[in-house]
Amino acid sequence: MLEHNKSELFHFSRRKNDDNPPIDLGYAPYMGDSPLCPKTFWRYLGFYFDRQLTFREHVQYYSTKAISTVHTMGMLGNSLQGLIPKQKRLLYRSCVVPIATYGFCL
Predict the structure, then answer these.
(1) What is the dihedral of CA 104, 95, 86, 71, to 10 degrees?
(2) For the chain, how many structural domains are there in total?
(3) pTM for the structure as a whole
């Protein structure tokens, strides 16, 4: 049995147009009023793929996540004094760099 909310359709294409119609598979739950509709991007193992493989979604997601991590680093430390530069560097290299460079080999 296939579950409608767990099934995904994705088609890679070199074309720029977004003509990607839904598919009627001919059996429930993918027929009639609820055909299988293609996604605009696909997440697989933490990577975001789009139709032209430009990785815009992937870069946008992980850059936003890295920037928010940098902003939350400002909350660390006590009320009188923040972190010393050595501690900030250690946090940046251990927390921000792995997030920002996730999937750069693609």
Answers:
(1) 100
(2) 2
(3) 0.71
Read off the pLDDT of residues 28-84 as tens digits, 9 standing for 90 and up. Answer: 665 556 677 777 788 888 898 887 888 889 999 999 999 999 998 888 877 678 888
Report the distance separating Cα 43 and Cα 62, nearest Å.
13
Domain coverage including residue 96 = 40-106
For 9-30, how does the pLDDT look when each residue is reduced to its tens digit (9 = 90+)? 777 777 776 666 666 666 666 5
Q: Looking at the structure, tell me whether residues 48 and 80 fall in a common domain.
A: yes
Cβ proximity of 42 and 10 under 8 Å: yes
Same domain, 66 and 91: yes
Say whether both 50 and 101 belong to one domain.
yes
- Angstrom distance (rounded) from CA 51 to CA 21: 14
